[in-house]
Design a protein that fits this description.
single chain, 25 helices, about 675 residues, seven-stranded mixed beta sheet, alpha/beta
Length: about 675
């Protein structure tokens, strides 16, 4: 492993900024820490709240990620309070957390890591703790200590596994008292602890320790076939994609029966090698590489026994059997190790491995599903390396349970804010690059939905999606080109959504165009184009969505954005009025045919939404002004005054109505038309 340290970059940084710098270097190395894992610290001289000089430990805060950590993510803990605990025989987690809260330099800041005492009990200034794949590969074997001594000699201390907390901190402190010449500590089935008088020294010690492990593993791996070689060959890419498209929504329906989940599909070479190998099925049930893995991936993966990965129906049958078996086994595991006060978390798998196809990971959102995916890549790497050295050994089921149902972890769940209204749901919006579609996309995202923004204007769709990602987090939106008049284009967009998120829950069929002309002056091409977009386009979207929603078996919601003209057509607006009326009738058919599957369909009828609208082009504005006998400048005011409330209708007003019909607020409403027009009496639904 190469050092990333740059003296040029580090020169001039104060001690805390040096800790931030070194921590980010650790976080930037994928094989050193998983998301949120690892800990770094530095002991510094500071002033306390009374201005007295004290020695403080700046340590990574709980839940921080080393890749992008900042100064504020290192709470200060007074060292005199930490060292006062050295002679205590024991201390439970809750008592320790409460104690450390009273020892903080700043009240109300980040909560210090559960491993704060481990760092504080060491006399060295800078301490780095990682979960390096290479080290875990050495320690997760049936000949762990023998291997560690072979690689490092006697200067490295190996400490048996214990869950992080007070007693592990004491174990490390006592081991160093017994072996004062030790240069590092390896925590079995967990990771490494290195130190130095400076952050740079501790960092370079970490790099050296890992490099030695990597070299030893590389030497052992020469001439060996990983995972016993192939048992099931990877399906060719094109066929693999087709099978994944069939399996993803089916699997999402299975794992989302109690609470919806977002899926991520991974067909990386390392994944395909592992899932198709002779040893993959057994190794996948051996347990996690580190305790941190358990929190995200659960103790084991769901391995699908399937020797026919090219047949979607056979794969789905095998997936159903595997998921049901996983739920049964997980429930049994919970009951066998149940602790007082513990309640069963969701029993569904987070990692699903399918020979020849790849891996699906699940999470409450795309970000979490990606974290699970990243962690399992670490697991595969550790399994492969450890298997070249000896038999892979993991946490026992009891040890894994104590991490997964660790009161401190469960407490974190209670402190999380309630999930938003559309959390765990995926919405596809057509015509999402501007006007109503853009406002709808933003509003659904605000309420927690993952949004697939589609539009004929691909750049515009991506821009809206990028804005959502910036506001709400990675993976929360996808911008795609979709021409609703083309079967292939519609299908491709739905396939992209399926591969990105596993399926859909909400479809907002919004794309539309307007042509203004008297019937006797209208070109046939304008009439046909209006129906292609405003009627056939909605049919193509609805057909593709119905197929997908039915395959999930989770129900779903359609919202068709029609127009006031459905109820009250406009003079010289025949093509628009007639084609949108066809859309509204289609929506009611969707309600009739989808009801038995829990699929609702409702309609929003807006009127005169000018803001950011491509529907109201300059040409349309001129034509509609002419039809009403007014000037273009008077047009918006004319429409405002003609509604009962005298209100200007904004895209955001329509978005609120769409949100209502897309959400469970309207769970028992289907086939309904909701007007957002300020009250146009001729357009009252009746």
């Amino acid at each position: 492993m190469n050092s990333r340290w740059s003296d040029a970059e580090a020169t001039g940084l104060d001690p805390l900024d040096l800790l931030v710098y070194g921590s980010r270097l650790i976080g930037a190395e994928p094989s050193l820490v998983v998301w949120g894992g690892g800990n770094t610290s530095l002991k510094v001289a500071e002033r306390d709240f009374r201005g007295r000089e004290v020695r403080a430990l700046r340590v990574k805060g709980s839940g921080s990620d080393l890749k992008n950590i900042t100064r504020k993510d290192f709470p200060g803990v007074r060292m005199d309070e930490i060292l006062a605990l050295l002679d205590r025989p024991d201390m439970d987690d809750q008592e320790m957390v409460g104690y450390l809260a009273h020892a903080l330099q700043e009240l109300g800041g980040a909560r210090p890591s559960i491993e704060t005492l481990l760092h504080g009990f060491l006399s060295q200034e800078a301490v780095i703790h990682t979960h390096a794949d290479a080290i875990v590969s050495l320690s997760n074997t049936d000949r762990c200590r023998e291997v560690i001594q072979e690689v490092y000699g006697k200067d490295i201390i190996s400490i048996p596994y214990r869950r992080p907390g007070f007693l592990l901190s004491k174990d490390v402190a006592n081991a160093l008292k017994t072996h004062p010449g030790a240069t590092a500590v390896i925590l079995e089935k967990h990771g490494t602890i290195t130190w130095g008088q400076t952050v740079k020294e501790a960092y370079l010690e970490t790099i050296d320790l890992i490099t030695q492990a990597e070299n030893a593993i590389s030497a052992k791996a020469k001439g060996r076939v990983r995972f016993g070689g192939a048992r099931v060959s990877a399906t060719p890419p094109g066929e693999r994609r087709e099978v994944a498209l069939a399996v993803a929504p089916f699997l999402r329906g299975l794992v989302g029966r109690d609470k919806r989940a977002i899926l991520h599909f991974d067909e990386a070479a390392a994944v395909l090698e592992f899932v198709g190998s002779k040893e993959g099925a057994v190794l996948s049930q051996a347990g996690p590489a580190t305790p941190d893995h358990t929190i995200y991936t659960k103790r084991v993966a769901c391995f699908v026994e399937c020797d026919h990965p090219r047949d979607p129906d056979r794969v789905k049958t095998a997936v159903r059997a595997a998921v049901e078996r996983f739920v049964t086994d997980y429930t049994r595991y919970f009951e066998a190790h149940r602790q007082e006060g513990a309640t069963l978390l969701d029993p569904f798998p987070r990692v699903v491995l399918i020979p020849g196809l790849g891996m699906f990971t699940t999470g409450k959102d795309k970000r979490t599903a990606l974290i699970v995916d990243d962690i399992y890549h670490h697991t595969i790497a550790v399994l492969g390396a450890a298997s070249t050295i000896g038999g892979f050994v993991s946490l026992t089921p009891k040890e894994a349970f104590e991490v997964e149902y660790w009161p401190l972890e469960l407490y974190k769940l209670t402190r999380e804010p309630p999930e938003k209204e559309l959390a765990r749901r995926v919405a596809l919006v057509t015509g999402g690059a501007s006007g109503i579609g853009k406002a709808v996309s933003r509003r659904l995202a605000q309420e927690g939905a993952h949004v697939v923004v589609t539009d004929l204007d691909e750049g515009g769709a991506r821009k809206v999606a990028d804005e959502i990602v910036t506001a709400h987090g990675a993976g929360r939106a996808l911008g795609l080109r979709m021409d609703v008049t083309g079967e292939a284009a519609v299908r491709q967009a739905f396939e992209a959504a399926t591969l990105a998120y596993g399926g859909l829950d909400i479809v907002v069929s919004n794309a539309g165009i307007a042509v203004s002309a008297p019937l006797d002056a209208m070109a046939v091409s304008d009439w046909e184009r209006s129906f292609a977009v405003n009627a056939t386009g909605h049919f193509l979207v609805a057909r593709e969505a119905l197929r997908l929603l039915k395959s999930q078996g989770l129900g779903g919601a359609f919202v068709f954005v029609a127009t006031k003209n459905v109820m009250s057509p406009g003079k010289d607006f025949g093509a628009y009025s007639a084609s949108k009326a066809a859309e509204a009738q289609l929506a009611k058919i969707v309600a009739l045919e989808g009801g038995a599957h829990g699929i609702r369909a409702n309609i929003v009828n807006p009127d005169a939404v000018f803001q950011d609208s491509r529907l109201w082009s300059e040409e349309i504005r001129r034509d509609r002004a002419r039809a009403q006998g007014i000037t273009v400048e008077q047009l918006e005011e004319f429409y405002r005054k003609r509604n009962i409330l005298g209100a200007s209708i904004m895209p955001e007003d329509v978005a609120e109505a769409v949100l209502f019909l897309a959400s469970d607020r309207s769970a028992k409403t289907t086939g309904c038309t909701l007007t957002v027009d300020g009250g146009v009496k001729d357009a009252f639904p009746r």
